[in-house]
Design brief:
By secondary structure, this protein is α/β, with parallel strands linked by helices. The protein contains 16 helices and 13 strands. GO terms for molecular function: glycosyltransferase activity.
Length: about 400
């Protein structure tokens, strides 16, 4: 098999799970060509991401004129397929996005040409957004069959506008990263398409988590990790911290984003400056170090898919406090590997923090080990890549 991956912007520091998946497939002897519409190189810091960027063919880097010439040339050589793909593009953009779908049509024509040049037998897109649209149109041009992975929550916010049902109908198969995710796809797929909806988890590399660091000797240290944006619920976390009755509670907030000034103001307004540390963006090594320095991860999100940070925290032997949304309850088990609370409930979040602070160190350590065992059993990237490889071969 010769597979191509297609992502809108790749690589990105927040999407290392795609790189891990590709590399796991390559370890199985599958040849992978990376396509992306654009690069995010200026924002990349991790040497592994920079190396991945060097391996990726960025379509828009060729410039508009060359892209137009390539696309039109391919369309003229395959007029019937080009017309079919054009009709599909116009139908997909019927709700007011026809102009951008004409751009996707041009991109698809070029990618179809490149797939023919490279002997690609299957095209797999990540995210059910424009990358899946281009993959569908590549197929319309007579290119290889395609599939795509849906992560959420963005796709579930606008399933009609994104034409998820149409994309699933034309795809060889569609992947969700959790059972919850698959259930949402079932809402928008025809019943006849349900057998082609599969769950393949995002994975971690167990070798990078060889053993758990001992829990900190004193205090109650929590770490929250993620982009400082609305859906992550960090403003609610600051409110919950102000409500908490736990003595010596400290929160380290790892990440950056547009809400940082508002969060800093809320921390100051609640008089929590001595209890909260904001680190800004951190690489993988720093994230692991912050997990090792904490008693637990806390995830106050309003919307998620199935966050990689939960998997990494559990692999590091740390219990998790999280909101009971999306695929999170499939991994975090109340009383066994952590605590689950209703999303948007600051008092419940504070209560979970108080419960963690009151839990004996031996019990916390046991919960961390149970968390580690569960995530290693369910999210080994090589096991999940094998599932995906079987789908590609099918």
């Amino acid at each position: 098999m010769k597979i191509a991956y297609l992502v809108n912007t790749y690589p990105r520091g927040s999407q290392t799970f795609i790189r891990r998946e590709i590399q796991a497939l390559e370890r199985r002897g599958i040849s992978i060509h990376r396509f992306a519409m654009r690069s995010d190189r200026a924002a990349l810091v991790d040497p592994a991401d920079l190396a991945e960027d060097d391996l990726t063919e960025h379509v828009l880097a060729m410039g508009g004129r060359r892209l137009l010439a390539s696309a039109v040339g391919w369309a003229m050589r395959h007029p019937g397929k080009a017309l079919a793909a054009l009709r599909l593009a116009l139908a997909s953009g019927a709700r007011g996005g026809r102009l951008i779908h004409l751009v996707y049509w041009l991109e698809a024509a070029h990618v179809a040409r490149r797939c023919a040049d490279l002997g690609i037998t299957h095209l797999h897109a990540h995210f059910g957004t424009n990358s899946a649209t281009v993959a569908m149109l590549v197929r319309g041009f007579g290119g290889p069959r395609y599939s795509f992975t849906v992560h959420g929550p963005e796709e579930f916010d606008a399933p009609v506008a994104l034409n998820l049902g149409l994309k699933m109908r034309h795809a060889a198969f569609t992947v969700a990263i959790s059972s919850f995710g698959r259930s949402q796809l079932c809402r928008w797929a025809r019943g006849a398409d349900w057998p082609r909806l599969h769950v393949v988890h995002c994975g971690i590399e167990p070798a990078k988590f060889p053993e758990s660091a001992p829990l900190p000797a004193s205090g109650a240290r929590l770490v929250a990790i993620g982009r400082l944006a609305e859906q992550k619920g960090f403003a609610l976390l600051v409110e919950a911290l102000a409500l908490s009755q736990a003595p010596g509670l400290h929160l380290t907030l790892v990440g950056d984003g547009p809400l940082r000034p508002a969060l800093e103001a809320a921390i100051a307004a609640h008089g929590l400056g001595g209890q909260v540390t904001l680190t800004g963006w951190a690489d993988e090594a720093r994230v692991r170090a912050e997990l090792a320095a904490a008693h637990a991860l806390i995830l106050p999100s309003f919307a998620e898919g199935l966050p990689m940070v939960v998997m990494e925290a559990m692999a590091a032997g740390r219990p998790v406090i999280a909101t009971m949304i999306a695929g999170v309850p499939e991994l975090v088990l109340p009383g066994e590997t952590g605590w689950l609370v209703p999303a948007g409930d600051a008092a419940a979040l504070a209560g979970a923090m108080d419960a963690l602070a009151a839990t004996a160190p031996e019990r916390l350590a046991a919960m961390g080990q149970a968390a580690r065992a569960r995530v290693l059993a369910r999210h080994d990237i090589d096991v999940e890549a094998a599932k995906l490889a079987a789908l590609f071969a099918g």
